[in-house]
Amino acid sequence: MHLSELDTPALVVDLDLMETNIAALMGRLRPTGVRVRPHLKTAKCPEVARILAAAGASGFCVAKLGEAEVMAAAGIDDLLITGELAGAPKLRRLAALHARHPRVRCVVDSVAGARMLDDAVAATGVPLEVLIELDVGQGRCGVTPGEPARALAAEVARLPHVRLVGVQGYEGHLQHIADPEEQARRVAEAMGRLTATAALLRADGHAIESVTTGGTGTCERCATHPGVTEVQPGSFVFLDRAYRDALGARGGYTNALTVLATVISRPAAGRAVVDAGLKALATDMGNPEPVGLPGVRYRPGGDEHGILEWDGPAQDGLAVGDQVALIPGHIDTTVNLYDAYHAHRGGGVVATWPIVARGKSQ
Ligand SMILES: Cc1ncc(COP(=O)(O)O)c(C=O)c1O
Prior knowledge:
Elements: E1 10-14, H1 15-29, E2 35-36, H2 46-54, E3 60-62, H3 65-73, E4 79-81, H4 88-100, E5 106-108, H5 111-121, E6 128-133, H6 147-158, E7 162-168, H7 180-203, E8 210-213, H8 219-223, E9 230-231, H9 241-247, E10 257-268, E11 271-274, E12 289-290, E13 297-300, E14 306-309, E15 323-327, H10 331-335, E16 340-345, E17 348-354
Parallel strand pairs: 1-16, 2-9, 3-4, 5-6, 6-7, 7-8, 8-9
Antiparallel strand pairs: 1-10, 10-11, 10-15, 11-14, 12-15, 13-14, 16-17
Helix pairs in contact: 3-4, 4-5
Residues 39, 41-42, 61, 82, 170, 172, 175, 215-216, 232-235 line the site of pyridoxal-5'-phosphate.
């Protein structure tokens, strides 16, 4: 089947470009010796995980327990859940997952949270590996580096059913900094906080084997900071418009994922309407970009409609029934809107991959 035969809106992956992105990241990180644990919150798909594993990934990250459950069921169970877990239903599910997949790791940033995990897995008889999450500047979750982290580590080490194996300090606020010098300086500061705390915990006798951090925008810088052992980028696999605009050529990645839409109306000169609106393309990080249509801008026209606009006659040839490819502004939130990827090479669809972790936000 050719892409032109697909019904729309459809999520389309250019396999050649995706493989080039993966090879580029792995190739640049290999000489550092740092493990790459890609974040599957972006792709949400076991087939993509298997391609990453074949390219050298050392395990994977997921953001949510629901993502961990479906990935483990698909045979991918060397997983770090990068968000804290709390609440009785969640902890019951964690216990069940841990009993079957003891390699699943969790993060904690409070004594209360750590005790909940400890209680939850007590009956399984196998310790749950945990990492202490540090706030290295993002201002989201994470205990303050230094003494507060040290105090938390001491409490976690007393718990009988969890085993402290590392620290996580994700610097999400630094991913899209366009100025390379500013980014380098701020990443170095954040990594300094992370690795100094890892050293403090080791000095207290904790076996900190994992010091994990970094996303697509920063992982190469993180990986060269002494003391970082692992990076967790996700978006590089497909890239999106927001990342491309921020990193430009220095990122070294290409947009490999598009949403295919169909023109359903040509109501006026300089305007076409496509069948992909807010339910097909996330706009939380900016509007999508039409591919191969210079001068054409996309804006949402409601839940089901997308509006393409242009000045002058340049694109007046766009006709009802034409397909248009759009690069999403933000891939994570766009991918989460689809049941499957259509993977193609040179326009020929070679596979359809279910996005099994789509909507697994619990
Ligand atoms: C904890 C954590 N690690 C890694 C990533 C991956 O970042 P990116 O998709 O920007 O590569 C994210 C993304 O939100 C994250 O929340």
